Amino acid sequence: MALVVAQEVPTSSSMAVPHGPAGVGQARRRMREQLRSHGVPDSVVDDAVLILSELLSNACRHGRPLGRHSDVGEGDVRAAWHVDRTGGLTVEVTDGGGPTRPVPATPSVTARGGRGLNIISALAEKWGVRDDASGEVTVWVLVDEGPQRPAGRPGGRANGRATGATGRAGTIGVSIPVVPGLDGLDLAGAFDDVG
What we know:
Layout: E1 11-18, H1 24-37, H2 42-62, E2 76-83, E3 89-95, H3 116-123, E4 126-131, E5 137-144, E6 157-158, E7 161-162
Antiparallel strand pairs: 1-2, 2-3, 3-5, 4-5, 6-7
Helix pairs in contact: 1-2, 2-3
């Protein structure tokens, strides 16, 4: 009997998204379809789609369109995602820069916004900002390091869920203890039907 091991074939996609809310849904649908067709687990796809939405919303709200040197006018931002040979997924959104740097905020309980980068911090393995000489700003997010990288390390993830001494929320200062024997239990959808 021969054992055949399938190796994940890298996949990537890049698309121009209208600077504004109109293209966000189209980008989410395209990402979801492409990642699912390449066998990315649903929990990782869901995280990636939410992260893409947050990044695009921030780019449209705080950044300029690519190639523009003013805050007004039509234009695009660029959304991209890449699955590497280990199955790691990275999402990027590039805009024309803006008056502020992307940093997590501390909004009040009643604030209508300001939570996007905190959501990203909670879902991501890591994220950062890359500046281009032309003034373009790219926010990149490592959504999932992939199944071929060590899982179960403190603060790491296995099967798209937090493991170790603190969960993913530990990246924003909230400690989540792991109960021995229950660290692999996934209750993410347990309360979806609760009204």
